[in-house]
Structure formats: structure tokens, C-alpha cells
């Protein structure tokens, strides 16, 4: 490879490195805002989930409202995959698709069918490419989701459940832990009797005792059954909204990490190409010296 070819390759890699560095800085700036949105939402989301769980436990019987009724059998499961609109984020999108297809395979092995819902262009396009029918697709907001986006998704899922189009609603998303770590989470939203909120066991013993004491002092007005009618739609909406925010922060963290790794790799490639160019230059200089010496000897 000539010096000119090596210089062209170095220039190309340097341009790529500028792009990856810029994308890393943009993702880092947006990530901080996404983290702040999650920090503000988590206490409210946890309170809604806790109130819903307590009301369900206090209710003598779950109201006969369609959204609260448990279907006799589970024939169809709605599976919502929360992905991103863009790529260049490492395994962020692919691990959600793998988890979703793995869950769907388990349902199909048990004789259930799957109704696919997807948030993010990557999820929609991947499902479509695989020949799967997407019952609901939601795109254009994955990096900065708003509550109306979550409400639209939640309304479609609740409508499908109420209309008996599906018998269970599950959601798969990346939970945000740190810029370097994202955790794939699978949660059941509906029916309420099987929802993830009713199986939460992450509280310590002292917290359990305090909650039991608090629960003993609570008087519900109106009755817990009436409260559930109002809480469940809010619970579904806030659960979807939290998943969208967690996924947004996870996507930015994954993209920042991926672009940093790409920039580091580009720096290594530039270093290797520079050494190769120096060797090529040295070889050309040596060749010229030998030609000069050979010419001098021929004249002498």
C-alpha cells in the first residue's frame, strides 16, 4: 500500500472518529436530562404501584369492571417491545428483540398466540422483516418520550384487553442502571391479579412491618374497589411511561458507551496506520538512497 493510500485511510478514520466523538458528547448531554426525568418520575411511579397493590389487597373482591376482570383462559398475549428509533447503540435493540422472541416462543410452546406491539422504529422494522404482524406501532419519540405517548400506548393495550382481543399484557424494556449497564426487564401489566406489582418482594423486613402497620391504620374513602377503578388506568399509563423513560436513558447510555468504544478503536486504527505510513516512507527513503549510491558507484 502506497503512502497516499495510507494517508487517505487515516483521513477517513479521522473523519469517522470526529463523528463518533460528537455523537458520544451529544448522547452524554442528553443522558443527564434523561436521568433527571427518571429520578423525578420514580417516586411517583412507585407510589402509584404501591397504592394499587394495597388497594387490591384491601379489596374484598376485584370489581367487575372489564379492565379489572381476569379472563378465564389465556389464549393471546400482547407483547410490547420498547426499542429505539435509531441504531448505533450496541446491543440495546437486539437484546430486547431476543428477549421478546424468547418470551413469545415460550407462550407459543404453551399453546398461546402473541399479539405484537412495538415502540421504536427498530422494533417495528425488525418484527416486520421477520414477517410478524404488528398490532400497534409507535415511533418518533423514543429519545424523549412524553406522557401523551405513554397514554396512547396504554389506551391501545387496555382497549385490546377489554375487547378480549388479548388475555394478558406484557412489556419488555431496558431498565436503566448506569450508562454502562442496562437490564432487560419483562413485566406483566394486565390482568391486575397477575401484574408484576403484586409480586414485588424487594422491600426489607423493616419496610414490610412499617407498611403492615400503615395498612392497618388506613381507612379507604371511597371503598378500595372504587379506588381500584380509578387507579388501574393510571397504573398502566405510568408503568408504560416509566418503561419509555427507562428505555430512553438506557438507549442514550448504550449509545454513549458504543460511540466511546468506536472512538477508542478509531484511535488505535489511526495509530497502526501511522506506523504503517512511517514504514512505507522509510522504505521509500531507503530505496532512494540505494538508487543514489548505485548511480554514484556506476559513475565512479
What's the SSE blueprint?
Elements: H1 3-58, E1 76-82, H2 92-109, E2 113-119, H3 121-129, E3 134-138, H4 147-162, E4 168-178, E5 181-190, H5 205-217, H6 224-299
Parallel strand pairs: 1-2, 1-4, 2-3
Antiparallel strand pairs: 4-5
Helix pairs in contact: 1-6, 4-6
Summarize the entry for a quick read.
The chain is built from six helices and five strands. The chain is of the alpha/beta class and 300 residues long.
How would you write the strand order of the largest sheet?
A: 3-2-1-4-5
> How far is it from the N-terminal to the C-terminal residue, by CA?
35 Å
CATH topology of the largest domain: Pyruvate Kinase, Chain: A, domain 1
In CATH terms, the superfamily of the largest domain is ATP synthase, F1 complex, gamma subunit
Apparent shape = elongated
Largest sheet: 5 strands, mixed
Structural class: alpha/beta
SSE string, helices as H and strands as E: HEHEHEHEEHH
> Share of helix among residues?
55-70%
> What share of residues are in beta strands?
5-15%
Point out poorly predicted stretches: 201-207
Number of helices: 6
Q: Supply the CATH class of the largest domain.
A: Alpha Beta
Give the rounded overall mean pLDDT. 85
The CATH architecture of the largest domain can be given as: 3-Layer(aba) Sandwich
Total separate domains? 2
Using the CA coordinates, give the radius of gyration: 28 Å
Secondary structure: number of strands: 5
Describe what this molecule looks like in 3D.
This protein has about 300 residues and is an alpha/beta fold. The chain contains six helices and five strands; from the N terminus they run H-E-H-E-H-E-H-E-E-H-H. About 30% of the residues are buried. A five-stranded mixed sheet has the order 3-2-1-4-5, sandwiched between helices. The protein is elongated, with a radius of gyration of 28 Å.
